[in-house]
Amino acid sequence: MEKKINVFSEQEYWFWYCGLSQIPLPVRERLLQRLGTPAEIFHASEKALRDVLRPAGQPGGQMEPMGDTDEADVFYNRKILERAVRDIREGRETDKIQRMLETMNQRGILFIPLCDENYPKRLLSIPGRPLGLFIKGGLPSDDRPSAAIVGSRNCSYYGRSMAEDLGKALAEAGIQVISGLARGIDAAGHRGALRAENRVAGTFGVLGCGPDMVYPRENQSLYGEVEAAGGLISEYPTGTRPLPMNFPARNRIISGLSDCVAIIEAGKRSGSLITASYALEQGKEIWAVPGRAGDYLSCGTNSLLKDGAELLTEPEDILSFWNLKGKKLRISNNNQLSLDKNLERVYSCLDSEPKSTERICLETGLNSADLAVCLVDLEMEGLVVQPYEHYYVAKRDKGEHYGKVSGHCRVPRKSKDN
Amino acid sequence: MYSKVYSAAIQGMEGRLVTVEADVSDGLPSFDMVGALSTEVKEAAPRVRTALKNAGYRLPPKRIVINLAPADVRKDGTLFDLPVAVAVLAAMDIIPAENLEGLLLAGELGLGGELRPVAGVMALAACAQESGLSEMLVPDGNVQEGAVNQEIRVCGASHLNEVVKLLKEPDMRKAVRVDLASCMENRHSGMDFKDIRGQETARRAAEIAAAGMHNLLLLGPPGVGKTLIARCIPGILPKLTLAESLEISRINSICGLMPEGTALLMERPFRAPHHTVTAAALTGGGRVPRPGELSLASHGVLFLDELPEMSRMSLEALRQPLEEKRVVVSRLYGSYEFPAKFMLVAAMNPCPCGYFPDRNKCRCSAPQIQKYLGKLSRPLMDRIDISVTVERLPFRELQEKNGHAEASGIIRERVEKARLAQKERFAGTDFLYNSSIPGCRILEYCSLGKPEEEFMRKAFDTMEMSARAYHRVLRVARTIADLEGAVIVEKKHLKEAILYGAPKLQKM
Predict the structure, then answer these.
(1) Which of B201, B187, B196 is nearest to B234 (CA)?
(2) Which residues in chain A are classed under CATH 3.40.50.450?
(3) With an 8 Å Cβ cutoff, is A373 touching chain B?
(4) Residues B210-246, buried b or exposed e (16+ Cβ, 10 A)?
(5) Which of the residues A252, B183, B381, B477 could staple to A278 if both were Cys, CB 3.0 to 4.6 A apart?
(6) What are the distances in angstroms from CA B450 to CA A7, B460, B488, B491, B492?
(7) Least confidently predicted of A31-35, B181-185, B252-256
(8) What's the number of CA atoms in the CB half-sphere (13 Å) around residue B340?
(9) pLDDT recorded at residue A415
(10) Within 10 Å of residue B490's Cβ, how many Cβ atoms?
(11) What whole-number distance in Å separates Cα of residue A395 and Cα of residue A413?
């Protein structure tokens, strides 16, 4: 088989090489550097492969250990190298590869290898760049700004509404929203972008599984919408299951595809912090939405802020990064808000933290009947929302209604730019 | 020699007259019992023989046959011991047969001849009355409940010898009289709302629920007092009427749960079966079904804690009783109907760990919560009109020793007033409470003015209500108006009804 030259097109050689996802990426990257193209690797003899992979210092070794110790470790592990050689040998089934590429194309999944001119420019330079991308829909444009919105899966209402508003504002300002299509903040960011009026930029989801899989299941419809409005991107070939180890890895693509990364709600050991460290490594700007001190869901973002991340409290903050100005979000119907006394009492007790009716009752001192009148009125006015059964929060633009805040005497004022 | 006495078998809620026949004739000595008998009844034979011996009656070495007729009705329970013993004694000519006319006997015998109380005496008394019998002889422990039926004479005995004496000389039988009016004075002795601090909204929701017999759902983290609130609810339901008390007592009597020597149960029942309860234990089960928890809670509160932990079967078994206020249990030998006029009070955590939406404590993922809440089917949730969240109180609130919490008695007065309004409104219909107004007649009873209608139209749209939820809001609003004594449902009633409105739960 080694004698045959070019049984495949270049595209097919790349497809074959990317399909070997069980071989660690640094190993594949090194082989590529040494041998040039996947075609060369395909036809290389096992001895040649071994020689290339054997670290310097060992007999016949050509490889210099790299500066990065983690990566160097990979090359010192004989088992991994042997397995890589075996995988390359066993992966050389020509007709199977052609068939796979064909069926994949039929299912609307495109394969963009590193050498393709459509391969995102942003990804070319990042450490650990994917060798090829499997995409459904499209790829983010290289000329348009893009931003990632990432955060906790088990987010709070506050985080979710922040993510939605941010996604919407970014998409409206022409910035591509990149996220991971996971539960919680990711999904909210995508949803916000999809909801944007006159959307000019798409939203793109980077997956931790093959592009033909939907994970998590409940995001099925969101998958379709994101595919239509942007694209689904994965470095894993079709049929790859959503393995836990895939997700931290795909985070480098999320940050890699973006010019800056917005992090909303991250716990202590959140995957979003992995994205943040990738972003730092790639030299991307990090924005973090603050949470209350001591909140479990915000300890990650708060510590990022402490470490010097940019403070993100409204979409305008991040838009200023590109010198863009967004449309101000506000409640349209009621800028001059004058609430009667009880209503005011209830409204001023609410904030972004969900409060139960019982707690509101306790804090306002109203009786149940009056409280009911206030809460239902406020909800129908669209000033408060009930994110969960019997729990209320004020809509996030509450501050809009209050110009000056001084003790209990809050003076409603007209919004500036109206 | 042949003789017969009357007794009765319990079938569902009713008694069925059974004739116990005995025949003593020549032949090889034996003691046989026939007539579709369950094990307990078959075991009567050695009990009766020993009891007779120890009471001083020697059984002749003859062939004794006992038949319980009708022979195709299954007989359960221990109440046939006494009639069998008396039938044998009559067949032995120790008791004159004419003294047994018009008399119904029931009782369990001990080996020494003493009489022990049995279950279902109230139903037996009703059966005796319907069958045209005029007198009943039961163990002393049951004589009070039997005597609640004022149409027949009920007397008691404590030993087989006493029974024989009473049957030999009918003049010595003294019927026990129960003064129903004096019975009715006993009162609720359970938990009182005055012992609960804070929890304004839960109190109010409980009051509304009690006033209109709406089913109530208490949501909240563990240990905040959901059970406590539920326990207080029987105390704010109106005082029992005689008819209600009779029904409660009868069910308890059939289940053998009447305390010995009580005539009537005067407290609203509070039943709190564990969440592992089976469907059969809820609805009533057995070959000849006995009333289950649903019936035992009739006219009172059925409290189901940890609702989503219950089995699917048990949960779905609640649906028909909630709708029809009765349980129909079908068995091979027929179907039996039990009352189920209970008020459902359910309690549950908002997520598997219990602390959602406090994300500092709760790490449940969205699918986990969805799965947890998904155990409750929509049709079941549609039958719960009111839901409320019980919140953990701040320490300060717990510390306040002299909180001015309202006592159950005061709340009950308001509830009774609201019930009175409902009674007048629904006179001549087959339903009693606002919660049971059928959907088609809801506008007739909860008519809205122009501005109210306008408001509800807006609320319907902004809150994304379903038609069912809309109806529930109207029903609850009607109750709130009744509590206030208002004739017309006003906006504020509607708003409060929306606040406590039907649980949506699918929101995450």
Answers:
(1) B187
(2) 123-322
(3) yes
(4) bbbbbbbbbbbbeebbbbebbbbbbbbbbebeeebbb
(5) A252
(6) 81, 15, 12, 11, 14
(7) B181-185
(8) 24
(9) 44
(10) 18
(11) 17
Closest chain B C-alpha to A264 CA, distance in angstroms: 15
Shortest Cα distance, chain B CAs vs residue A41, angstroms:
44
Per-residue pLDDT reduced to its tens digit, A179-213:
999 999 999 999 999 999 888 888 999 999 999 98
- Specify the DSSP class assigned to residue B70: S
Poorest-pLDDT segment among A3-17, A267-281, B14-28: A3-17
Tell me which residue of B373, B212, B254 sits closest to B11, measured CA to CA: B254
Q: What is the DSSP string of B123-173?
A: HHHHHHHHTT--EEEEEGGGHHHHHT-TTSEEEEESBHHHHHHHHH-GGG-
Q: What is the pLDDT of residue A405?
A: 36
Beta-bridge partner residues of A406: A409
Identify all chain B residues contacting A388, using CB atoms and an 8 Å cutoff. 350, 356-357, 507-508
Contact B1, B93 (CB under 8 A): yes
ipTM computed for the complex:
0.82
What per-residue confidence (pLDDT) applies to A328?
Answer: 52
Indicate the SS3 state at residue A80. helix
Fold of A123-322: Rossmann fold (3.40.50)
Separation CA B183–CA B186 (nearest Å): 6
Q: Is B486 on the interface with A (CB under 8 A)?
A: no
Cβ-defined contact of B492 to A373 (cutoff 8 Å): yes
Residue ranges matching CATH 1.10.10.10 in chain A:
341-412
CA angle B343, B347, B353 (to 5 degrees): 170
pLDDT surpassing 60 at residue B416: yes
Average pLDDT over residues B1-8: 93
B204: chain A residues, CB-CB within 8 Å: 367-369
Q: CA–CA distance from A381 to each of A397, B290, B456, B501 (Å)?
A: 14, 54, 14, 18
Contact A315, A169 (CB under 8 A): yes
pTM: 0.82
Q: How far apart are CA B418 and CA B207, in angstroms?
A: 10
Give the distance from residue B500's alpha carbon to the nearest chain A alpha carbon, in angstroms. Answer: 8
**Chain B partners of A361 at a C-beta cutoff of 8 Å?**
200-201
How far apart CA A37 and CA A11 sit, in angstroms, is 11
What residue has token string 């059928």? B438
Chain B residues whose CB is inside 8 A of the A377 CB are 495
pLDDT value for A58: 56
**pLDDT value of residue B140:** 93
Touching check for A356 and chain B: CB below 8 Å?
A: yes
Q: Which of B495, B504, B505, B508 to mutate against chain A (most A CBs within 10 Å)?
A: B495
HEC string for B35-65 = CCECHHHHCHHHHHHHHHHHCCCCCCCCEEE
Per-residue pLDDT of A107-154, as tens digits, reads 999 999 998 999 999 999 898 899 999 999 999 999 999 999 999 998
Using alpha carbons only, give the angle A349, A355, A359 rounded to the nearest 5 degrees.
Answer: 75
Does the A341-412 domain belong in CATH 2.40.160.20? no
Q: Is A358 on the interface with B (CB under 8 A)?
A: yes
Phi, psi of B259 (to 5 degrees): -65, 140
Can you tell me the mean pLDDT for B64-76?
91
Task: Please compute Rg for chain A using Cα positions.
Answer: 26
CA-based nearest residue to B8, from B103, B115, B147: B103
Instruction: Give the β-pairing of A146-151 and A260-264.
Output: parallel
Where are the domains positioned within chain B? 2-178
In the three-class reduction of DSSP (H, G, I as helix; E, B as strand; rest coil), residue B390 is classed as: coil
Q: Which residues contact A22 (CB under 8 A, 6 or more apart)?
A: A83, A87
| Residue contact A356–B389, C-beta within 8 A | yes
- What's the pLDDT score for residue B337? 92
